[in-house]
């Protein structure tokens, strides 16, 4: 039985996404595609996919409007869905993760379910409908799959961990040597953005996305700015559409071998044209992030991954 797509008359995209799609000349094509692949519920395939994951990337907004990208971890099955409109999360935030302070009934939340070893990923945004001692539940607003572009394939291992064990908290207002080394060696990071105006209807909320490239694709400019190339993608422009209307963003970097986590929040802008873009082979535009604050935790993530198998989509890209 086929799963119906977008059933509403209004667009599945909000005004920021539509504006960029129009700028890039793809709005009509994206309207047709969005109505086909974006759903107001979790289809059976997505429900099964989330249930087999040992981790998920989460986006939330704190009380000051800062956006954070986080990670939740558990044995497969910690994500479940009793029905197509609900995602149940039976897990608690990692020690020090800003998510712990942002969870409350009624808040917007975004999810990126991603299997690095299969290069499969699904996005979901919704509203927290219930919090309890074991976790929380989310009412689904939008759910859709993503293509495997730029995902570096890695096998993972879930290691023993204790959420109650405190770890040193490294507060960040500028990028020092440990953070710079972690970012410089990264081939993957995650970005959370949001547009929460009620006028956007079901297209409002928090989005979490994956970004990948060859090590060094994130360029460090001084103590507080990162510049990242953006390659050809699915043309939804969910991230950039949010930034068009709300410049706040949260980044999450992972050390896949040591389990270190780097949480950054700040503001962002998109460079659409200019000579700077040509400095990176294959880039169509640039994304610039300006750090406001963040946290680094050593060995916080109870997952370890193998060395990457780089995405074939990166064959025609270069490094700084």
Topology, element by element:
Layout: H1 15-23, H2 27-37, H3 44-51, E1 55-61, E2 67-73, E3 79-80, E4 86-89, H4 99-102, E5 108-115, E6 120-132, E7 135-146, E8 156-158, E9 170-172, H5 177-184, E10 188-195, E11 205-212, E12 219-221, E13 225-230, H6 238-245, E14 248-254, E15 261-271, E16 285-297, E17 303-305
Antiparallel strand pairs: 1-2, 1-5, 3-4, 4-7, 5-6, 6-7, 8-17, 9-16, 10-11, 10-14, 12-13, 13-16, 14-15, 15-16
Tally of extended strands? 17
Count of alpha and pi helical runs: 6
Q: Which sheet architecture does the biggest sheet show?
A: 8 strands, antiparallel
Q: Class, according to the CATH hierarchy?
A: Mainly Beta
Unreliable sequence segments: none
The CATH topology comes to Pnp Oxidase, Chain A
Radius of gyration from the alpha-carbon trace, in angstroms: 18 Å
Number of structurally distinct domains: 1
Average pLDDT confidence is 90
Helix and strand run? HHHEEEEHEEEEEHEEEEHEEEE
If classified by CATH, what would the architecture be? Roll
- What gross morphology would you assign? globular
């Amino acid at each position: 039985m086929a799963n119906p797509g977008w059933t509403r008359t209004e667009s599945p995209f909000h005004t920021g996404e539509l504006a960029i799609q129009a700028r890039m000349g793809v709005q009509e094509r994206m309207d047709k595609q969005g109505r086909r692949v974006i759903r107001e519920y979790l289809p059976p395939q997505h429900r099964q996919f989330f249930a087999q994951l040992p981790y998920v990337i989460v986006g939330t907004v704190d009380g000051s409007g800062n956006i954070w990208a986080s990670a939740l971890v558990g044995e497969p099955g910690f994500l479940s869905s009793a029905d197509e409109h609900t995602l149940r999360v039976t897990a608690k935030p990692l020690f020090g993760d800003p998510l712990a302070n942002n969870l409350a009934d009624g808040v917007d939340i975004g999810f990126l379910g991603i299997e690095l070893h299969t290069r499969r990923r699904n996005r979901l945004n919704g509203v927290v409908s219930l919090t309890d001692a074991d976790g929380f539940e989310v009412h689904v607003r939008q759910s859709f799959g993503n293509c495997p572009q730029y995902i570096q394939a890695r096998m993972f291992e879930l290691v023993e961990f204790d959420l109650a064990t405190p770890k040193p908290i490294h507060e960040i207002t500028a990028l020092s040597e440990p953070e710079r080394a972690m970012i410089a060696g990264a081939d993957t990071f995650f970005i959370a953005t949001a547009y929460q105006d009620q006028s956007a209807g079901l297209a409002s909320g928090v989005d979490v996305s994956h970004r990948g490239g060859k090590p060094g694709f994130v360029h460090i400019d001084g103590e507080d700015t990162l510049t990242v190339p953006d390659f050809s993608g699915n043309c939804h422009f969910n991230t950039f559409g949010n930034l068009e209307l709300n410049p706040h963003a949260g980044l999450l970097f992972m050390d896949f071998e040591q389990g270190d986590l780097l949480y950054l929040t700040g503001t962002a802008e998109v460079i659409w044209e200019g000579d700077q873009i040509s400095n990176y082979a294959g880039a169509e535009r640039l994304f610039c992030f300006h750090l406001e604050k963040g946290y680094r935790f050593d060995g916080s993530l109870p997952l370890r991954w193998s060395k990457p198998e780089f995405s074939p989509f990166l064959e025609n890209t270069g490094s700084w």
